[in-house]
Structures are given as structure tokens and as C-alpha cells.
Amino acid sequence: MTVTVDDRIEREVYVPAPIDRVWRVLTTPEHIRAWYAPGGCEIDPHPGGRLRFRWDEHGEFHGMVERAVPDALFRFRLALEPDHAPSDPGEATLVEFALSPEGRGTRLRFAESGIRALAVPDDAKAKHAEYATLSWTSALEELAAIAAASHN
């Protein structure tokens, strides 16, 4: 049986909030806890900086920032497996958030790529793509709602 695996997940959302507020919600631990990693996170949003996202039910996922341009782009590698710092491209995917002003708000474009290059069987890649699609869609909706409602 052949398993078809998407290599890239893409989502886009309009956030009725200024770009600097969206950036803050996207890159600060107290906000990330609310929209993505409820168990907490540690983040150094600079190239080469480490990040860790925690979930009680899934464990701690490690990553490394590749690029961070305030109010424009946040890109990092994120480990496929919990409690493991990725050292090889086959152990992580590339996650990217691109922000651009749009009217009085912000257009947020998201992509996770490199799924086919993961060093796991195709059925595990397909399972990751399916789960990631659902979880990122939900997380982006939550991020947009928090940024739109945030006044700090």
C-alpha cells in the first residue's frame, strides 16, 4: 500500500490587530502558553536560539530558531519527537510564520515543511501531517483571537 504524504502544511489568517501586537503574541512565552503550548515554553527568538514547547500529554518538544525578523518573519526547526533536541534534518520540520500589514490588521501566513524528509516510515509522516494540520489550524485561530483581544 502506498501512503501519500504532504510535504508542506500551509495556513493563512487575517488578524484584526497591529503587526507589533501579533509579533508579541507569536513570540513571547506568556502568549505562546495560551495559543500553543499550555505546559509552557522557553524561547530565545534570535537566530540560533533554542526553544522548548511543553504539553502535559505530549512532552517537551525542542527546536532552534533559524530566522527572526521582528514584525515580519519567525522561522524555526521543531523536533518530531518529544524530549529530543534535533541534530539532523530528518528529525525536525521547518516552521515559518510570515507577517505583513494588511489594512488596519495583519496577514499571518504559516507553513510547516520538510515532512517527507523526516526519518520515519511514510505512515508516521502521514500521521504527523494530519495531526499537525489540525493542531496548527486550531493554534492559529487561537493566536488570532488573543492578538485581536490583547491590549498589552
From TrEMBL:
Domain (Activator of Hsp90 ATPase homologue 1/2-like C-terminal): residue spans on this chain: 17-146
InterPro entries (alphabetical): ASHA1/2-like_C (IPR013538), START-like_dom_sf (IPR023393)
Annotated family: Belongs to the AHA1 family.
Protein's UniProt name: SRPBCC domain-containing protein
